[in-house]
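Q: Convert this sequence to structure tokens.
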Amino acid sequence: MCMDRIEKLIKKVSKPARLSVERCRLYTESMKQTEGEPMIIRQAKALKHVLENIPIQILDSELIVGTMLPNPPGAIIFPEGVGLRIINELDSLPNRETNRLMVDEEDAKVLREEIAPYWQRKTIEAFAFPLMPDIMQILYTGSVFVLTEIAGISHVAVNYPYLLRRGFRWFLEESERRIRALEESGVYEGEKYSFYQAAKIVSEAVINYGLRYSKLAEELAESEDGERREELLKIAEICRKVPAEKPETFWEAVQFVWLVQSALHQENYEQAISMGRIDQYLYPFFKKDIGEGRINRELAFDILANLWIKTNEIVPAFDSLLEQYFSGQATNQAVTIGGCDIYGNDATNELTYLMLEVTDRLRLRQPNVHVRINKGSPESFLKRLAEAISSGCNNLALFFDDAAVKALKNAEVDDRDALNYTTDGCVEIAPFGNSFTSSDAALINVAKALEYALNEGVDLQFGYEFGAKTEKPKFLEDLLEKLREQVSHIVKLVVRGSNVLSYANAEVKPTPLLSLCVEDCFEKGVDVSRGGARYNFTGIQAVGIADVGDSLVAIEGALNAGYSMDDIVEACRKNFVGYEKLHKLLLQSPKYGNDDDAADKYTKMVLEWYCEEVNRHRNFRGGKFAAGCYPMTTNVGFGFFTSALPSGRKSGEPLNPGVSPSTGMDREGVTAVINSASKLSYENLPNGASLTINLSSDVLGEKGDAVIEALIKSSMELGVMHVQFNILKEDLLRKAQQEPEKYRWLLVRVAGWSAYFVELSRPVQEEVIRRISCRI
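A:
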């Protein structure tokens, strides 16, 4: 491997990111020119205009080419979603505390004067608002739920095996054939006719996109000599072929994947467009090339390292409000390695090991590397995995096949598709290649349901009756009944809001290229936003489950100690001021995460209620809603707007992340945390769940590898769905807060993805530091 080449490329993506207007400007130009045409064709023409005109470049030393934006790193603006929210902060972006974005004055002028006026009444939000003004009022508070489809749809694993078997010339020619067949039957309009017209346009666009890079590589080769000249000529040869044709070599296959990946990021909102089971579909190319001597392991490492680095070229264009809920500049482009095949046999291969090595050596924020583990996983692989984690590689998440497959089967996914599941985004699971899960469509602050149940449906932070109108509870059983009613009420609001936004996306922003990348859409002639995929889920995440469970067991203890429900409610309203004795009692009550059945049963119960409420609903695309339990960093944002809870948590403090204990409440060590988490009903979580284990590197000691391997095996045997590790030191994190430039590459696992610690907002940094309390 050539570490000089890799370090040079990493250095290029480590510059301060800039706000990029190129895609935004070109997209808007095309949309202005196509008014009145079918929307799917307008979107296809807009993507074609972008791919054929956006400035392209090949960076020095690159083997895999295709920049998502000129002069990376940078942030792409999607004006059709919520991208223009950032327009009010253009002057402050370069100087904000975290996640700074450089802004060119001329670009700012273009955004304000040319782009924003056009999109004022044409966004997804503008379409949706009149259909649900009451829900939008609650959404804008940021306290109860977040509806992410207001920004656009993404969160999907692309079916690269399907694409690699065809090439985009096949889609071009097959679209033409289907258009002719429709015309011969007298059909010259309609959704299916427009779909294939759009498919033809985007197929041409992607083919031409590759040819642009081929031409540029040839031009650059003229001014080079030696090894770099040969590399550029090879790149030119590859891009003349892919993605138009089927790849035949490993280098061609990886380049095919990246050109499509970068094109998809010009069409779709940038969150969680994932590459699926990459070690499985690239392995035949790797094995053939190694066997025939076309490449060696070192060249394969360099090619994969280039691919990993490319995913770091973009960051989200989040405004200051979104930074509270999605801190860390992650785009969550996930790759999945390891796991079993469609027959249930372990499918770990040489490429699985190599991709783990690339991840361990580079330690980048992206891609989000997800490792599938099962009882047949090789011992050597588990040891190598544990070694990487214990040494501080905080960019790995582990998924256990038994629990994940069971959850998908329970959601009516066929056995083979369930066994072939992939991951996308943070911790979401999905049938690979034939599903559109929109797996992060919404996040719900479940602690608000408890606040409403205790306060007759009134939101204490805002004074509005956002909850269902219920009477003041007097007994624990009474409270449980009202809590479930409030959970149901909030879920119904979110379901309605998500369905309206799904409809808005289908009307305002169909996605013809993405529809070629999900199996069944092309065959049906139905856009992915309208239900073209075989499996159609909408994922909704619970945040604060453990806080609610801890509160219920604390209430039970306080009532038994002679306090009344009114005492508890009033103590929470006063943030425990004047109620110090009661506060101490509440804090000392059993807590989830300590293998205490008295506490764990309530967290399990609340999560089951939540799952039942979510999973029974149907979505706009004809599929099901799917419950998940992970927070991004909404546990901090939601916590800011949540009053004091009977668990003893004070007003404004973060909520618990995923199925992890409330911060600082895990008192009995890591094994107790895993035991508590294993009691939850993962079969009801087809959208995934996150369990984060935080350990000080001092605690692990010399036997760190063996400890981590044992924890992995225990998690799998006990039936946990997911686990991820943070191996950190508090003093190091404090130094990073004081001198961020010296610790630019300090990577931490947040809540389903990794981020550079210094790019997290201060409240999120503090929450991460507080987690490092677990003992072995």
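The radius of gyration is 25 Å.
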